[in-house]
Amino acid sequence: MHIRVAAMAVVLCIAISASQGQHSQDQHSQDQVRRIILTSQHLGAHGMGYNTRSLWQLSRKLSSADIPTLLTLAASERHTAVGAQFGLASQCAPAIDPVRDSAVQNKMMSIDADDTLQLISDFEGCSPEARRKASDVREDLRQLMQEQQALQEQETKQKAENDARIQANGLKLLDPEQAKTLSHEERLEIYHRSLAAMGLKEDGPMTPDQKKLVDRMYRSMVLGEVKTPPNQ
Prior knowledge:
72% helix, mainly alpha, two-stranded antiparallel sheet
């Protein structure tokens, strides 16, 4: 009899433990996550904010299932953005790759991702392996962002140079002799740039008058058939 009671008690404890473990992995609603974040603030030298104590509290109240919600809050709500970063950091290893991917996909600002990864690398509640990985990913992400910025700057510079070249070629159309030096591709560039400046597209919707104007522009700029400016 005692053995049966003891066995039942063990089974009950296991069931309760499993139920609690399952509950800890349940995903909270966005409103619940928001409340958890806001209630983890503490009074500091600069007023209410987040600190290491917040990280410990968030690590107990949130789970890895809340990471997608935390990423949304970090990117879309200014008043919860910092708290969401602390929430992400409290989840340690499971949050590292999602934070990196969000930054790479421009869903999360790179500076916010950098701050979150730094929090993970400094949080003693995370395993040494997770803290090391956060530091490594942070460095890789910084290098990637620098490369992307350099590429964007190069693309911007190239676009400005192309615009200046096309504009200069456009002026050549005003001189019949200089117009002869333009290739068909250069004439098309001038034509398409002029359409864009007017807010029109070749295959876009146009009024009958606009179609007539665009046709005259094409025959003048590209084919060189119309000698008078297309707006006259």
